[in-house]
Amino acid sequence: MSTKLSVTMTKSRFGRLPNHQACLKGLGLRKINQTVVVLNTPENKGMINKVSYMLKVEEI
Predict the structure, then answer these.
(1) Model pTM?
(2) Cα-flanking dihedrals φ and ψ of residue 14, to 5°?
(3) What is the predicted pLDDT for the residue at 2?
């Protein structure tokens, strides 16, 4: 069974590269301090790694 990750957006998406904004949208993040729970899949890990400077990630 794959584990889940709790992902919290800590910085604003405005002024970021379009690809980085798309990664946030793909993860389901829209607001600062919003937290979502995503599966620990290679696709999600890739998006998290790309915008890791804007996120706080915890394993559940």
Answers:
(1) 0.88
(2) -70, 140
(3) 65
Crossing angle of helices 42-50 and 18-27, in 10° steps, is: 140
> Which residue is associated with the tokens 């794959």?
2
pLDDT band at 18; cut points 50, 70, 90: very high
Provide the β-strand partners of residue 56: 8
Which domains does the chain show, CATH number per domain? 4-54 (3.30.1390.20)
- Phi and psi, residue 7, nearest 5°: -115, 125
Reference 5, options 32, 42, 31; nearest CA is 42
Please give the average per-residue pLDDT across 31-45, as a whole number: 95
User: Residue 42: enclosing H or E segment and its boundaries?
Assistant: helix 42-50
